[in-house]
Write a structure and sequence with these properties.
The complex is a heterodimer of chains A (249) and B (171). By secondary structure, chain A is an alpha/beta fold. Chain A has seven helices and eight strands. Chain A has one domain. In chain A, 35% of the residues lie in helices and 24% in strands. In chain A, strands 1, 2, 3, 4, 5, 6, 7 and 8 form an eight-stranded mixed sheet that branches. In chain A, strand 6 (178-191) and strand 7 form a beta hairpin. By secondary structure, chain B is an alpha/beta fold. Chain B has a single domain, classed as Rossmann fold (3-Layer(aba) Sandwich). In chain B, 30% of the residues lie in helices and 30% in strands. In chain B, strands 1, 2, 3, 4, 5 and 6 form a six-stranded mixed sheet that branches. In chain B, a hairpin with a 2-residue loop joins strand 5 and strand 6 (123-135). Chain B is elongated and about 55 Å long. The mean pLDDT of chain B is 90. The chains are: A alpha/beta (249), B alpha/beta (171). The A-B interface holds A 4, 32-37, 69-73, 91-92, 95-96, 98-100, 102-104, 106-107, 110, 112-113, 116, 140, 142-144, 212, 214-219, 222 and B 10, 12, 14-16, 20-23, 73-76, 78-79, 97, 99, 101-107, 109, 111, 113, 127-133, 164, 168, 171.
Amino acid sequence: MKQFIAFSAALFIAGPAAAQDASQPNTAEPVAAQVAPTASPVSVPTLPQSGVSSATLTSQCELHVWPAERFQAMTTGWGVGFGMLGALADSAGHANGDKSRRSQLASALDSEGQLHALQQLDLVSLLHLPASRVIVHADALDPKTVDKVLTRRADSNSGCYNELIVTSVFYQKAAMWGRSLRTSFVLRHFEGSGAPLVKKTTGGNGLKIFPVKEGQDTTAADAELVSVFQKNFTEAAANFAKQTGQVGQ
Amino acid sequence: MYVYPAEGVHSVGEDFDAVHGLDQDLHHYYAVAGRPLGWLSIDRQLELLASLPLGQLSGAGTELPTLHNEPMSRSHALEPQMRAAETGCAVEIYMPQIFLERGGLSNRSLRIFGVARRYEQGKLTHSFSGYAAAPLNGFQLRSPADAAAATHLIEAAYVEAVKTFLHNSTK
């Protein structure tokens, strides 16, 4: 419970970031999912924005992408301001709703949905990587192993090898700051056989449609989740660019 | 009328309840049962669906549904299918996802995601996608002896959720 209260308080304090994002105009557009069921892994060549010829695609560089299977939803009301009992009552009051929203995240942003959303972006360019082949993995990595395993998670000997791992998808609604979706990412650069250079960050943006009331059509809300997930990645990619990273963390 | 099932069932929990990933609960349930219980396999979904008046529930009248045994992924289900060759009315029902959900402070329930589309003379006239849930009150799986009762409860909740989804889709 202590951890819960501390976490709630931390989220409450972190709220203003979400509020800034929530004030942005809603750019959600229905995204028609088009990814066929795929066996893992799937290689998807991408062209960087800077007009690289198709010959570049034969480059040795690889970017491997894994989706998240950790979904969290937390709604906090004014009760969190009334100590432990208030926080507990508040949490209990939102428990059923959060349970539902967690499943809806797992549905709209299932592995296929996350990978499809990411593949619609120019990952290589946004991450400032050299021209790379993007290889998506349908099966999420065990979250417990992401920080512990410092070797390559894909069977590749490429001399230019990077990993992008989505580690969690988190919905938050705070009484004062509104609704937001936060996504955590890990980027690992491997050079040779040494430990990787690891960067971690999150992206978070406001939600205006999700969630809808039980029983209503969720097309627009689900599309918003996908759109905000993409915005979160774009934000995270900018954060990565500012980081120097740490070896083997 | 065309009906497509889900590939299977997933479970979703929360960090505060020490559930850190998809299907963690499901693996636990099957471990306690001592064997994979194969809850809501494609064949079982089709058996349960065949027992329902799907035509009436989805507003397609007494039309007998065609139950497909190949599951559709969520993204495929969301792609409008072309029914241009159809004359008259055609109804598509996709239920590509089933979740067993729970939280530290909430009861267990079963939730489905579905897509329903109606075509008239090959033209899409109505589309709905959304969720429907049913409670799993009394669910417990603490020993292999609980497996049959738990399975029955899950199947009953699935049927309820399907009914609710189809009802919602016709509003």
